[in-house]
């Protein structure tokens, strides 16, 4: 099958080229789309193998066995008993899957399982920055529940099931509104209809100050210094956050974004009315977080899932477990 070998080599080269260009920054990759295409392509090869190529090889092996039996009968008639003929070895060679099917149809079950698991159940993420310290540290590998807020179709992200509504205090992964190909992780501070005020380093929701309790200072091993730490009672369970009173409350560099008229900026900070179908997100490291204060609200359609578990941190395996 010279044609199929050439076609498969071109397909694999295209995938390798795409990943190489992505790795070296020549283009902006989309892993979800890449995995979807890999599933479709390998599924096509798997179906072709099962219903065309494998039956064809089996017929060829059966033909060899039938020809060998006919030859044995003819040799027996001539009185020839010893013949150097290994029919079983010839059949095994005919039945063996060629490389171009082994690298496509052979990988389909694994790729399909990863695609389904990642699209509808759980997706792994790595924490790249310190915006969620002290809850999540740089290097934490987390699992994100993809069905809590409703199951969505991969790639096009159409919601199939309603799911539970987002709650204040949830730690959520979402597609960054200014650049949806990039995933962000923050904490839900405001839900649709809320008025969120962050003035003079104090968070207020609908006119009620969010309760905070001072904790011992947090030592940031990367920065090699201590930061003021607090326990914040935003959702059903308290969580820790950093809030450095030495850093100005003024939001510097806020961009233009959808529904920016819902926000009022001042020297003390910002007050925003969360529009319908949107959420206001903030990092737990309040003075080191690029969040809704700067780029606006997160549309419901951008929600990826709820962060639920740290499954590994190779620098600190003790961090494995759930978090608030």
UniProtKB/TrEMBL annotation:
Gene3D superfamilies associated with the record: Umud Fragment, subunit A
Pfam families: Peptidase_S26
Keyword Protease carried by entry: yes
Domain (Peptidase S26) ranges: 101-312
UniProt-listed GO biological process terms: signal peptide processing
Transmembrane domains' residue ranges: 7-25, 31-48, 100-121
Chief localization: membrane
Enzyme class, broadest EC rank: hydrolase
GO cellular component, one term: membrane
Catalytic reaction equation(s): Cleavage of hydrophobic, N-terminal signal or leader sequences from secreted and periplasmic proteins
Molecular-function GO term, any one: serine-type endopeptidase activity
Membrane topology term: Single-pass type II membrane protein
EC number: 3.4.21.89
Catalytic residues of the enzyme: 131, 186
Keywords: Hydrolase, Membrane, Protease, Transmembrane, Transmembrane helix
Family named by the database record: Belongs to the peptidase S26 family.
Protein name according to UniProt: Signal peptidase I
Organism of this sequence: Extensimonas vulgaris
